[in-house]
Fold:
Amino acid sequence: MGDSSTAALIEGFCLGPFATNCYIVRDGNGTCWIVDASFEPQAMIRRVQELGDTPSAIILTHAHADHIAGLAEVKAAFPEAPILIHEAEASFLTNPVLNLSAGYGEPMTAPEADRLLKGGETLELGDSSWKVLHTPGHSPGGITLYCEAAKQALVGDTLFAGSIGRYDFPTSDGPTLFKSIQEQLYVLPDDVTAYPGHGPTTTIGREKRTNPFVRGE
Ligand SMILES: [Zn+2]
Ligand SMILES: [Zn+2]
Structure:
């Protein structure tokens, strides 16, 4: 039995031309998740193999190209691991316009999802429980994975240290993004560590106090 208050072991990998953070989330007992799969995912794949962990899921915070470009390679390395994504972005995986790769002049598609999320689910990784929070705005199916016991949240491109996700893409929506941050993220305890899709980790409390784009109450 693990101690439920112990934080999961999270290893970040800054991958590809957009410096996208992808994460290995480990339960410490031989199982892990892979969260997001950017360009050039080899170092992350090698690390999982070196750890000897078995990925029980590949979870996508959202389906922009810089978070799914390495999905085929990751899935090929770990074919037993199901791909999970919010249902609002299931079609993004196979649509280069929606996943923004067409706009960058390198149209690409990725493997289809094995399981669709709606938000509100609880996913188990070993002894730890992670809540799926639907945090749209940067993209319609953006999710945050939140472990209350470990005080850790993987927030994708919704919130960054000192910044927030872009909301100028065709499928983005600014007011929806602000609402997600205020009503889903800033209600979490101040000492929750946030692991964003780009840039350094931060805490919910620090962003509530100092984020220049969305300030907490
Ligand atoms: Zn994005
Ligand atoms: Zn991104």
